[in-house]
Design a protein that fits this description.
A 1,2-diacyl-sn-glycero-3-phospho-(1'-sn-glycerol) binds at residue 147. Keywords: Cell membrane, Lipoprotein, Membrane, Transferase, Transmembrane, Transmembrane helix. One of its GO terms (cellular component) is plasma membrane. The chain is 51% helix and 6% strand. The protein has helices at residues 30-52, 60-82, 85-88, 106-124, 128-152, 189-211, 217-234, 249-271, 296-304; strands at residues 16-21, 24-29, 167-168, 185-186, 243-244, 247-248. The strands form three sheets. It has a two-stranded antiparallel sheet. The chain has a two-stranded antiparallel sheet with strand order 3-4. A two-stranded antiparallel ribbon has the order 5-6. A hairpin with a 2-residue loop joins strand 5 and strand 6. It is globular.
Length: 330
């Protein structure tokens, strides 16, 4: 029997939003709407953070046009590669592309999205690490919103539990573990991750405020925070996953994320002891239409003293901003 206090799964009818159209009915998955809402919120927040640091208003859209499609492609590729039996064990091969049936991986989206950001930053002149730092808290919020989609889909739940916040899952669910009684409650791993991500936003913003995290160190802190939580939550999920040395593939990916985050912080802290002079690479700075323009000689002299934030190194100490860059504070 289901305990008096528990978290109900939404009705199956809530999974799909049916919109009447002239040619019939347009079905939109709530999971997709959650992902879309997360992308929109993260885009708005990242844009505000970049603009405060001197970026051109709206430039984030130029990055999103590259990052989102490649992030979706990366998410699908990662999922397929880590669940090969679902696609290459006698199933129809075209289902590899059936993204509407579910199956996207956050770590794959991070990889694909990072490639998109690198391309867009090269085109726009933004520093990659500056954009990554501005994105970090919004990325956690987007992931928290996206996890609601797992609740609508009745998926990715954890071990059985007697805790009062156990999640109700119907015994007819294909992922319902065999041998368990109808009414068994499960750990709501989607909720755990939502809470972890929201707490992480507060932690990251606090670290940024007190330690002036720049040059990718804010993003490094994100990788450490998210990787730590995901490594824990992944171990209690009951859905099938590829195993390596007895550990789920996503746990290994979480360990790697933590390691990369630590390396980014250590390396960038040593290379760049100050904050960025601009969110743009030298010579690509954006100037408002009404900004005062200094002499060409002054501009060239200042630009020569800067590095691009990825490959070069700045002088020790606090770097001086060019006349065209704004305050780098968030």
């Amino acid at each position: 029997m289901i305990a008096p206090i528990s978290i109900p799964s939404p009705d199956e009818a809530w999974r799909t939003l049916e919109i009447p159209v002239p040619w019939g009915t347009l079905n939109i998955q709530m999971y997709a709407l959650c992902i879309l809402a997360g992308i929109i919120v993260a885009t708005i927040w990242t844009s505000r953070r970049l603009t405060k640091r001197g970026a051109e208003p709206g430039i984030v859209l130029d990055v999103v046009l590259w990052a989102v499609p490649l992030g979706i492609i990366g998410a699908r590729i990662y999922h397929v590669l880590t669940h090969p039996d679902d696609y290459f064990a006698g199933q129809e091969l075209w289902r590899v592309f059936a993204i509407w049936e579910g199956g996207n991986a956050i770590y794959g989206s991070l990889i694909g999205g990072a490639v998109g950001v690198i391309i867009a930053c090269r085109l726009t002149g933004l520093r990659f690490w500056s954009f990554a730092d501005a994105l970090a808290p919004g990325l956690l919020l987007a992931q928290a919103i996206g996890r609601l989609g797992n609740w609508f889909n009745h998926e990715l739940f954890g071990w059985p539990t007697d805790l009062p916040w156990g999640l109700e899952i119907e015994s007819t669910n294909p992922a319902f573990p065999a041998g368990l009684e109808d009414g068994t409650l499960f750990h709501p791993t989607f909720l755990y991750e939502i809470i972890w991500n929201i707490v992480g936003i507060v932690v990251l913003l606090g670290l940024e405020r007190f330690f002036r995290l720049r040059w990718g160190m804010m993003f490094g802190a994100y990788l450490i925070w998210y990787g730590t939580g995901r490594a824990v939550f992944e171990t209690i999920r009951v859905d099938p996953s590829e195993m390596f040395l007895g550990i789920r593939s996503n746990v290994w990916a979480s360990f790697l994320a933590i390691l990369i985050g630590i390396v980014i912080i250590l390396v960038q802290r040593r290379r760049h002891p100050g904050i960025e002079p601009s969110v743009y690479r030298p010579g690509r700075e954006w100037k408002p239409a009404d900004a005062e323009v200094d002499s060409d000689d002054s501009t060239e002299s200042d630009s020569d003293s800067l590095d691009d934030g990825v490959e070069g190194e700045n002088e020790p100490g606090e770097p001086a901003a060019t006349s065209s860059s704004r305050s780098a504070s968030a």
